[in-house]
Each structure stands twice: as structure tokens, then as C-alpha cells.
User: Fold this.
Amino acid sequence: MSKSKTYDFRPNDYVVYPAHGVGKVVSIEEQEIAGTRLELFVISFEKDKMTLRVPTHKATEVGMRSLSSPDTVSRAMFTLRGKARVKRAMWSRRAQEYEQKINSGDLISIAEVVRDLHRTDEQREQSYSERQLYEAALERLCDPAAAVSAHYLIDEDGTVIRLVAEEKRAWHAGRSSWRGITDVNSASIGIELVNPGHEFGYRPFPEAQMEALIPLLAGREKRGFMSTLRSSGCSSVSASSASSTRPSRLRSTQG
Assistant:
């Protein structure tokens, strides 16, 4: 294996592989297969206890890619906040399309599945197959290694959706620092509030949304997060930290 050769991915990089989700490139090795020497990415999927070897020259062709950028994460969160777009087609065909979106590894496509299959208490219950696909998409979307941008999402009607468990690290602050804390994501909880935002027509947050937010903040203080970071918005972090790579958003609260 040539030491001077450059690769799209390097050891210790996290990547998304279609159908398997997020894995870690452990190494790049050379093997002889059927008389041909191939260079292979060795990828570990910790959750599934699986190791996959992918020819380096085929990685992009099979859909292997880097983790989503902060901008893509923001777009996925905006997709989650939209209204469900359910096609008038037979369920078998829609289920196949949903499965393809989940297996694609594309964050926005997966967010579309979660958006379309989510049900509130007032709506009819999901069928068994709908629930299976919804949970699969939500699990893929909420994988901490996939850099989901918040622990909680609060809809305008006050519905609270947990995206990442509090004890796990999300990616709500991008690469940023705050008052001496160099890894804001590890020291804080990210809460996204549904709102069109600056780009799509910012509007006041509804009372129901604020009523759902207050208990989350109060509970977080009891669990010790307030003493570490206090509360701040994305705008505050971005304005105060030259290292922040996530664009300012008035709709988010972090702490």
C-alpha cells in the first residue's frame, strides 16, 4: 500500500454506510482476493458488533460517505418540523420507499420518514409495520455518532420528542467554546424549538411551547447542568466563540 496515496477516509473517521448506518474506519489494509491485491477500508459497527471491509476504490460508488455537516443537520431538523407529506399510494409501496430512505443513510431522507410516520396523541395509532419503520428511522436519526443536533425537539403545540438520551453527546453546538468550556456539546443539553427561524419567517414562540420547555430546564438544573454552563442560545455561542461552525439560530436553547 502506497504511503503517499490519499484516501477519501482515514483511520478513526466516522462514516455512514448504506443499510448499516454509522461506523468507524479502523484501518486501511491490503489483501489478496482471487489473485488480485485490493486496498480495503476496515469499518467497525460497534452497535451491531460487525466489521465490514470495503474496497477503497468502491467506497464512494456504494454510497459510503462522511457524517453530515452542521448545515445538513440543521436542514434535517427543519424537515422534522414540517407537516407530514403522505403520498396516496398503497402502503406496501410507501413502506418500500420509507425503507429505502432509511437505508440510504441520508439524514434528510431519514428525517422525512420520522416526520411522515410520527403520530400525536390525537391522531390514529400507527399500525405495526408503520411503528417498526418509524422506530427504525428514529433510532438511525438519534444515533449520537450520527451527530444529531439536539437532545430534545419541542413542537409548537408543546409536544416534546427526545432525540438523544441526556447521558449521550449530541451535536447541537457544532464546534464551539463557551466561557472556558472547549467542548460545549459534552457539557450541555441541546433543545430545539420548532419555529421557521430567520430564513423562513421568524415568529414568536407559542405559550404551549414555552410551558413544555420550562420543566425541561428545571429538571436539567436539578441534574447539575446549570452549574456547568447556564443557559444560552445558539446566537450567543456563535457570537462569542470564533471557533463555532454552526450558524446562529434564535429557535434553539442550549445549556
About this structure: Residues 224-230, 238-255 have pLDDT under 50 and may be disordered. The domain at 67-141 is CATH 1.20.58.1290 (Methane Monooxygenase Hydroxylase; Chain G, domain 1). The two ends are 47 Å apart (CA to CA).
